[in-house]
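Lab notebook, bench 4. The sequencing result for the construct came back, and we need a structural model before the next group meeting so we can plan mutations. Quick request posted to the team channel:

Model the 3D structure of this chain.
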Amino acid sequence: MVAFGKKLKQLQVQEWQGYYINYKLMKKKVKQYVQQIEASAENQQEGQLASRLSSLGEQHDALIQQADSMRIPEMQEAYRDVGRDLLKLLYFMELNAIGLRKILKKFDKRFGYKFTNYYVKTRANHPYSQLRQVLKHVGISAVVGTLSRNLADLQDHQESFISIYDHPALALPDPIIESINAAVDRLTNSTDFLQYLGKHALIPEEELPSPSDDNVDERYHFMSLLLNLANTFLYMVNTYIIVPTADSYSLSLGAAATVCGAVIGSMAVAQVFSSVYFSAWSNKSYMKPLVFSSVVLLVGNTLYALAYDLNSIYILLIGRLFCGLGSARAINRRYITDCVPLNMRMKASAGFVSASALGMACGPALASLLQTKFKIFKVTFNEDTLPGWVMAFAWLVYLFWLWTSFEEPSQDEKVNSVQQETNSGLGTRGLQNGVSQPLLSSSVEKQQNEDEDEDEDEDISEEASEESCKPVTSIMSAYKLLTPSVKVQLFIYFMLKYAMEVLLAESSVITAYYFIWSSSNVAIFLACLGLTVLPVNVIVGSYLTNMFEERQVLLASEVMVFVGIVLSFHLIIPYSVPQYVCSALLTFVAAEVLEGVNLSLLSRVMSSRLSRGTYNGGLLSTEAGTLARVVADGTITLAGYWGMSKLLNATLLPSLLICICSIVATCFTYNSLY
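Done. Here's the predicted structure in token form:
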């Protein structure tokens, strides 16, 4: 039996070797035919564009010599026509690149082996590989350079014939050039700082925008966008301005210092609910929920400040609850998603993240400046109450600005926008008829398609059906769309927010107990931590994500968070300022890196149905982070009953356990993170 088994195994090996030899021979023939037919067709398209540009160049030179300003607009439009045709070619290439990526992903899933890495590695630089046409496009760059240079030259000559008061001194790039550059960036899947910040905000961007999106969207209003970003900034300032003085405020009202966890966390508790109703409210209006948010925050900060003279810890907590009920971050995200044109959405998303980071740094910094004490009409103004009064005044000014400057998008335009974006997945298949044809149309491909017909039909039904494009209508429906990898990434988000909240919320208590720091020292320390956010994002977005896979950065960041938490424990040696500062800095920076990379991955793997509607991906991530803050602040308050000497280790232990669980979960789902 053993000999028979060995003989059977040898026959199977020989049979597979025969299949492999036949496969290599067939592959060689297919490569020759495809290289001659399809590659030449695409090169012919690029050659046609180049010849058109050459002809336009001769007309351009003649026009400049004749100084005929009347023909300049006509020449500019001719160049834009070439740009639109180039854009169609880029859409064509991107469609095939997306198809190739999905096929390779299915191979990885079926084989249980990273076939994608082998495929790209062996074909990216092969002289006869068609993959080079997707990855290497020097000719396209040359065409873009010619178009942008000639359009700018025509613009300069046109302005030379007109008064300088009729045009701005700085000419803006032509929209068609921006669209082409954006398409090239998507095609190469390049990652820069701006894209990294935009993904950090978890605001969806369409994978294949239509050429009609080059026109300026009528719903876009710059001042309204600026008001949304200002709301984001002020809310983050409002969140962190009370952190340095929360413990002293609690003590002045007769409560324990560790009640600062409840004071800080009460805002997060209310935000869990406010995020949902604000997200639902944004389906009907943007102006009304923003006004409501400002009024509630004005009332909340006023109650927070009055709690000192009323000598009531309950008024203090109610004031912070009101502040949480005014959290309009869901509105801010939704406005960028629905009302900002595609060519500006990534910049607006980056502005959203930058405003949040700046507010996080400015909150404690502002608190450090409010170290004074005086009374006006028996109302006390000191380091505890001034943060509330300052923020109440800031929200009053913002409310007036909002009322006078915000422009509500019309309901019809919003409905039409949602319908167009819902159907965008269907519209790309019929893009300019001939453009959407597959890259390989030979008989060999038809035979291959017959072998994979069942799989492709399943993919088309999943991606092109109207049902798959509709937004979810309930939290349970949203939960059912979460794949294991998405659940793990939401858990990672929970972990990092928990670790950061423990670090920030208990900083005033820990530093006062171990190092006798004043509120101003704590505020400066927290402000310095907040100022690291943007530089860290610059390094990660511009360098690390271009050098390593995002999932590698994700896992490395989790390990660094783990190391930072371990170094924060007070075990044997006396607790020192260098140990606390270095471990806190390591934990905070690693968590910031982890947050950006995690949300960037989450924006790619989350279902398209979670890109719109009330229960969107941004809401889910916000709820996960807010819930983490609630649990962390509750942990600080409960750990305070065991005494100040045990507070540090008691709050760090859950962070350590949750971090270990997230690392294990990441390792299990590592291969599914793309």
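The chain has 29 helices and two strands.
Will bring this to the meeting.
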